[in-house]
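New to this. Look over this protein:
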Amino acid sequence: MDNLQQWLSENWAWAMIAAVGAFVLWTLLRASARQGLPYSRRGHLVTRNELKFFRALKHAVKDRWHIMAMVRIADLLQVRSGTPKSISWFNRIACKHVDFVLCDPDSLEPRLAIELDDDSHRRPDRQRRDDFVDLAFSSAKLPLVRFSTVSDYDVDSIRSTVQRTVGL
């Protein structure tokens, strides 16, 4: 105990700096822990137009299909085993999604992918993306249908397209 008192009397300034530093570090770590990771919740999963289409699609298919929204293509398609440069092929689909997927309600097996095409799909870069996605789905033998965005969706037209493609 005497050694500690002697050391503190000789090095009180250093002891004070160490105590203040430890307090500042502790305060910063607590604030960081309270703040958490740098994520915030997004407002909506789909746009207003996609929500309008979703409601019409729901009426069109009733309980025959389960509707999934904003599905990543890499969760629907996989690169065939043994494909050269498979990681490169995977990366081409990893960050892309389709707007909706109709799944079997019992098994959740994907049966039909749906894309809504707004005016942005007229741009050359979007057309190249759409051509690639169409070819990828065709190669995987998973049907993909495209609907143009409109202000009011026709439930009967949607039902007819789905029925023609996969049955209702």
